[in-house]
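hi!! sorry for the late reply, been swamped w classes. u asked for the two structures so here they r. pasted raw, havent cleaned anything up. first the sequence of the first protein and right below it the tokens
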Amino acid sequence: LTFESFPTSLIGLANFISNQAKIMGLFQEDRAYLPHLSIARKVKHPLNITQLSHPLRINSFSLYHSQSTNDGVKYTPIKQWTLKS
């Protein structure tokens, strides 16, 4: 799911993290970052969701390690940061 609006500072944060990853030699995709929520990956049957009717207030973000397994994708939290309001 993507957002109708979001703080422009979020794009700056994503660009900073991507640049740091490049400096460390980590592969980065060439497409622009689009803030989103992943609610499902590699599902066997598509979900029928067009939009949420409730606004979301984001007050933190987390770094996860996603690992594909035979049983699906496993997400392991690595670190969480609180956002300033």
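now the second protein. again sequence first, tokens right under
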Amino acid sequence: MTQRRLLALLLVPAALLALPAAAMTLQVEGWAWTTADFVFAWIALSGTLGGWLFLANRAPNRTYRTAAALALATGLALLWVNGAVGLIGREDNPANRLYA
């Protein structure tokens, strides 16, 4: 992995997380993230971007890259929503662990 890609892998998720950090600083109602929330979000975003960088270099054509991007985005959305509010019933429903 080149230094440029490694830098992107580290900084792009951090830049995306600057928006919730700014909302926390401005005390916007509904933004009550803890440090663990930021760590979880950074790992999820970095993992998705890392997966994309890994798969994009190995895909033989645009169709495979598009399918990989769609699969990674879907996985990230499922993880994010399940981590935030849960998909089945309330947030603390044990059935939500099935989506992990």
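hope this helps!! also noticed smth abt the second:
Residues 35-58 form the longest helix (24 residues).
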